[in-house]
């Protein structure tokens, strides 16, 4: 099975860098995406907002990025134990 997401989005919000009980750096983000996509032969304006998290060195790297900066995020989706919506777990970012 595959669970691989690539999303171009800007960092809309970032919580302060925190540390898990095991001492791992962690950060929570809200990402915003806007594009035009083809659907059923028609152009469609698409907007999406999504929660994201990162751990370790990736969390430290994301904590240094500016709000509003645009990136290509790569990772996977998972639903937290107490959550209802999938969250993007960021494994890599590249400038867009």
Automatic annotation (TrEMBL):
MF term (GO), any: single-stranded DNA binding
PROSITE patterns reported in the protein's UniProt record: SSB
Residue ranges of the TM segments: none
Keywords of this entry: DNA replication, DNA-binding, Primosome
Keyword Flavoprotein: no
GO cellular component: primosome complex
Pfam name, any one: SSB_1
Gene3D superfamilies the UniProt entry points to: Nucleic acid-binding proteins
A single BP term in Gene Ontology: DNA replication, synthesis of primer
Sequence similarity: Belongs to the PriB family.
Record text on subunit structure and interactions: Homodimer. Interacts with PriA and DnaT. Component of the replication restart primosome. Primosome assembly occurs via a 'hand-off' mechanism. PriA binds to replication forks, subsequently PriB then DnaT bind; DnaT then displaces ssDNA to generate the helicase loading substrate.
Purpose of the protein: Involved in the restart of stalled replication forks, which reloads the replicative helicase on sites other than the origin of replication; the PriA-PriB pathway is the major replication restart pathway. During primosome assembly it facilitates complex formation between PriA and DnaT on DNA; stabilizes PriA on DNA. Stimulates the DNA unwinding activity of PriA helicase.
This protein's name: Replication restart protein PriB
């Amino acid at each position: 099975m595959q669970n691989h997401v690539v999303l171009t989005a800007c960092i809309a919000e970032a919580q302060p860098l925190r540390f898990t009980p095991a001492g791992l750096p962690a950060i929570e983000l809200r990402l915003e995406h806007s594009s035009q996509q083809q659907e059923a032969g028609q152009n469609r304006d698409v907007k999406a907002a999504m929660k994201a998290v990162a751990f370790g060195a990736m969390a430290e790297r994301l904590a240094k990025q500016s709000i509003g900066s645009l990136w290509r995020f790569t990772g996977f989706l998972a639903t937290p134990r107490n959550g209802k919506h999938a969250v993007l777990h960021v494994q890599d970012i590249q400038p867009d």
